[in-house]
Each structure stands twice: as C-alpha cells, then as structure tokens.
Amino acid sequence: MLETYLSWYREGRMDESEFRSVTDLLAEFGMTVEHPTLGCGMLLDVVGEQVKLPAERVLELVGLSVGPLCMQFWLSADVDVVCDVRYVAPDTQILTFVLGGLTENEYGQAEDAIQRLIQRELDTTVALLVDLGGETAEEDDDALVLYGRLPTGPRPDRVQFRTDRLSAVPAVLAGAEVTDLGNGLSALRW
User: Fold this and answer.
1) What is the pTM (predicted TM-score) of this model?
2) In which region does residue 64 sit, left (phi positive, over 0), alpha (psi from -120 to 50) or beta (all else)?
3) Which of 8, 128, 147, 154 is 20 to 30 A away from residue 93, measured at CA?
4) Which of 104, 86, 81, 78 is nearest to 19 (CA)?
C-alpha cells in the first residue's frame, strides 16, 4: 500500500534538548510523543511492533543519533503518526511523517502541526517534501534535497525549500516553476 508522507529536512543533528523543543512544538498542535492514556512513548521495531518506553527515553535515543529510529506521535489514544527519524552526514536530520490511513481531519491536523513546526524552526529548515502517494524513493528525495539532483522517476507532489537557500540548488530550479509562499518558503513544481 502506498503511503502519504511529509519529510522535513533540517540542518544539523538534533541533540536531546533540540528534539525536545521540536516535540514540544508538535505537542502544542496536538501531536504528542507520549501516548495519551498509556503515558509512555513508543518506538517501532524492525517488524513494526510497538516497543513501549518512557517518553523521555525516546527523546534521549533520538538525541543520541544511534541510528535511524521509527517512533509514533499521537493525535489521540487510537490515532498515531509514524515518524522515521534519521541522520544523513554531513549535517542533515530528516523526520519523515507517514500520514497514510488518517481521516481527512486527522491528516489536516498532522499537516498543520508539521507546517507550524517548520515555521517556528525556519532557520534550521532545508526543505519539506510531500508525497501524497508515497511513490518517490527515499534515495531520490535525498538526492533532490541534499545533492540538488532531480529524480529520474516519480517526484514528490510538493516540494518547499527555504527561500534563501534556493541558489544552493540550481539544478533543481532548472525548468521549475517557483512560487514564493511569503512565509520564508518557496514551492517548486516541474
């Protein structure tokens, strides 16, 4: 099944306190690390099973950058958003929020929270990619954002770069329609 996802590329590796700031911002808009009724955070193991941990431990593990982690944010006690957290050298942290299976309202709530987060973290934001059908390969997303190479296959449905960084991706701009969103981000469409 194809999954809708939003990938937020940000400059620098987040330590525990920086990740806590990010999760606090998301919590302001209804996406929490701590499960609302169980009072714990959850990672997903390699087969997708939940591993219950204290929320503080989840924040610590992300801050340690021990490797890619898959965690859950909660919109309610029975609605979650899976988030893959990974670090790509030399200096980019990527949070990919999987939004498949959400209702239209839940999707709107999650996307709004992520967009608000990006606005508050604009100084560290590199790009936001939205793939409504989950058709773009992770390596193509990385090539687009990190190395300025257009995917040879499917492209994300929406790509937003920080406006002041557009000159750093001239190959991506070739043939693109660029729209300044007026909020520090510019949307690109090919």
Assistant:
1) 0.94
2) alpha
3) 154
4) 86
CB 113 within 8 A of CB 26: yes
Per-residue pLDDT of the chain (190 residues), as tens digits, is 458 999 999 999 999 999 999 999 999 999 999 999 999 999 999 999 999 999 999 999 999 988 999 999 999 999 999 999 999 978 999 999 999 999 999 999 999 999 999 999 999 999 999 998 888 888 889 999 998 888 888 889 889 999 999 988 898 898 889 999 999 999 998 8
Cβ within 8 Å of residue 96, ≥6 positions away? 5, 6, 7, 8, 83, 84, 86, 138
Contact 99, 4 (CB under 8 A): yes
- Give the span between the Cα atoms of 34 and 39, in whole angstroms: 6
